[in-house]
């Protein structure tokens, strides 16, 4: 059985949990207390030298890290990853956007507010994270204005990757009121068969 090294509040972990559940693939969760450094022990670093969850251990014993790489691996050959060459590249385009322009800003703002607290020395950095996070949300709003989903007009791992931190963006101080297309898309993703909330282990 696939084993998922995870941390429940993590959007990156949630991406994998959500896809495994929607695929109907049984898995075992191993909760890691990342705040206590459990992902930085020598034993865990042997699984992922980058010291971060999520990591999956596959049936053959191999470890695979990076949430979007895990999504790509699990979705291969399923309805969650389109088959056409250009469509697959577009899925990757949005997953790269998520990792470079979205997650480092939206997820980091959330982590600081919910886990670390906003100290005086972090206040200016938080404002910059929020500025860049809003810029990413603007890009999403522009794309979704004329579309139901990110790629090929169907639910895919591009939507899962971007849903993970967008749906909890308010916890990072983001107001989605001026992003109606993003909010409508969040509702469509939430309505997919087998959807689970981030709080469900
Ligand atoms: N790019 C990675 C980011 C993973 C990541 O940032 N994981 C965080 C939790 S969301 C973590 O494990 N932090 C613990 C640490 O850095 O020690 C992915 O998408 O999987």
Protein architecture, described:
By secondary structure, the chain is α+β, with helices and mostly antiparallel strands. Helix content is 52%, strand content 8%. It contains seven helices and four strands, in the order E-H-E-H-E-E-H-H-H-H-H. It has a four-stranded mixed beta sheet with strand order 2-1-3-4, with helices on one face. The longest helix is centred in the middle third of the chain and has 32 residues. It starts with a strand and ends in an 11-residue tail after the last helix. The model has no long low-confidence stretch (mean pLDDT 97). The site of glutathione has 14 residues, from helix 3.
List keywords for this structure.
alpha+beta; binds glutathione; globular; 4-stranded mixed β-sheet; 201 residues; 7 helices; single chain
Please state the CA-atom Rg, rounded to the nearest Å.
17 Å
Structural class: alpha+beta
N- to C-terminal separation?
A: 16 Å
Strand content of the residues, in percent?
5-15%
Low-confidence stretches: none
* Total number of helices: 7
The number of distinct β-strands equals 4
Bound molecules: glutathione
Instruction: Compute the average pLDDT.
Output: 97
Helix content: 40-55%
Strand order in the largest sheet: 2-1-3-4
Shape: globular
Helix and strand pattern: EHEHEEHHHHH
Largest sheet composition? 4 strands, mixed
